[in-house]
Amino acid sequence: MNRFYTELKEALETSEGDIWAETVLSGEHAGEKYLLHARPAEADRTAGFPDVFCERIGRTPKLIVCGAGHVSMPIIRMGKMLGFVVTVIEDRPKFADNARAAGADRVICEPFASGLAQIRGDSDSWFIIVTRGHRYDSECLEAILQKRSAYVGMMGSRRRVAIVKDQLEEKGISRDLLDAVHTPIGLKIGAETPEEIAVSVMAEIIQVKSTQNKSDGGKTGGYSEEIISCILNAGNSGEDPAELQKVLATIISRKGSAPRGVGTKMLIIEDGRTIDTIGGGCIESEIIQKALLMMRTKAPDFQICRVDMTAGEAEDEGMVCGGVVEVMLEKV
């Protein structure tokens, strides 16, 4: 089993494209996991294994902001609130310091071209161009369009944007690629202040992210770095000795209203600690108890549990959700 997580960790660190995983849900091979680097065909998923959970695994989303002017500051703060790892590229030291103060995870104080050369880009990279002039916009956009990305947005007037696009088209970049850039950036909400503009930009990113997740089979939240490290015993051995058992809980189906989506994961450790959440409340409490029972008895190492939140008990608890979820529990 650890081989799967070792390969997954390496793939998340090195691959630019989508990563898929399959888990066999029933039969003598129940619990077996396979890592794939392309979307499996329906026939492949069902051949030999009629019951398979297939997920497109998302990485931790990365927000790359080119420019550290007034609009960038609330974008940085909102990006952090929304769970992005935020990198800012800015060639002016004073403005770079402002980005650090705003909470950016990484600030590259270098010319934009050399700064972007340090960014690999992948299907979970979100680029925002908010520089101080079209010369820098053009430089950034040209470099970014050579990379894999989930989103590219550029701030600027229609005239400024048109100039940049024409310049890059003359350099050989296709018009289709240029027209796919989100510009003017942000949703049209009448934003005027830097904070309002940041809201419109991040709202557009949320909208694009949601649309992408609903298409092409959907992308799950994947495995957090903390979960993978704990499974591989890469953390502090004093706090998490290898002999402690662990169970990984994954939501594999959802009907009706439920707090978290398919693919959401939580790791339960034998001493009662947990990493991440599958939604809290009654559902999480029940799953934790089942996982602890798996570790403390001779129960099977792989189980699928059904939690019904439409019953009276859920209503008595005051839960706002009223759906049914299936959760896969596997010792890791």
UniProtKB/TrEMBL annotation:
Entries under InterPro entries matching the protein: MoCofactor_Util/Proc, NAD(P)-bd_dom_sf, XdhC_CoxI, XdhC_Rossmann_dom
Top-rank taxon, per record: Bacteria
Domain XdhC- CoxI: start-end pairs: 247-301
XdhC Rossmann domain sequence ranges: 63-205
Gene3D superfamilies per record: NAD(P)-binding Rossmann-like Domain
Official protein name in the record: Xanthine dehydrogenase
Phylogenetic classification of the source organism: Bacteria, Bacillati, Bacillota, Clostridia, Lachnospirales
